[in-house]
Amino acid sequence: MRMGLSRNLPISFLLLFSVLFNLAHAATFDVQNQCSYTVWAAASPGGGQKLDSGQSWSIEVASGTTGGRIWGRTNCNFDGNGQGSCETGDCGKLQCNGYGTPPNTLAEFALNQYQNLDFYDISLVDGFNIPMDFSPTSSNSCKDIRCTADINGECPQKLKTSGGCNNPCTVYKTDEYCCNSGSCNATDYSRFFKQRCPDAYSYPKDDATSTFTCATGTNYRVVFCPST
Fold it and tell me: Which cysteine-cysteine pairs are annotated as disulfide bonds in the entry (predicted)?
């Protein structure tokens, strides 16, 4: 029986091939700050970057990446070693190597997944802090999604927090809102978010109207405070 190609090649070659394939199909994310105030952008993977109004930051993300996210942090203070804190979206340092603390508007993605598709969304499951647009830039056939409502200004009293609007899971920590059992439904709070940002995840099981796909190899743009 003829053995498959992979069984005749050294592991080191296969690893090199995998790395080169992922680099060749990497996606570029152009992160722009159109807010009137400074935003400390964060990305996992990617780290972090201070963006004054009008500035941008470009990051490369390897094909096959799952659980990727980009978000903005507000009112940050960091020392010379990049250690510090932020009012919203904090990860404890300028260069994030994990996720931020709520509330933070999230651009989430998984690259080169089922049927060679990228999956992307805007999520308010961790609450809201900055208006956001998340759009493919190298394809005209994929949806531009955004969340630009005045959620901070209209936030229900019990969800209000300094600099943002919490998701109810952060506040109440119950299965009804957090879906810890894997089963939950829309609530009055999730409907508050969904009515204002129909493209965005409003609670953990809000998949049907909140997940979008684009062909692998697409590049993307994340804009904080996009023009309406």
Answer: 35-225, 76-86, 91-96, 142-214, 147-197, 155-165, 169-178, 179-184
Rounded Cα distance between 115 and 147, Å, is 28
Q: Tell which residue, 170, 124, 166, 125, has the closest CA to residue 147.
A: 124
Per DSSP, the three-state class of 173 is coil
Domain map (residue ranges) of the chain? 27-224
Q: How far is CA 153 from CA 56, 108, 129, 177, 188, in A?
A: 26, 24, 11, 22, 18
182 Ramachandran zone, left/alpha/beta (phi>0; psi -120 to 50): left
- What's the pTM? 0.88
Higher pLDDT, 21 or 183: 183
Measured on CA atoms in the order 206, 139, 49, 77, is the torsion positive or negative? negative
2.60.110.10, 3.40.50.300, 2.40.30.10, 3.40.50.1820: CATH of 27-224: 2.60.110.10
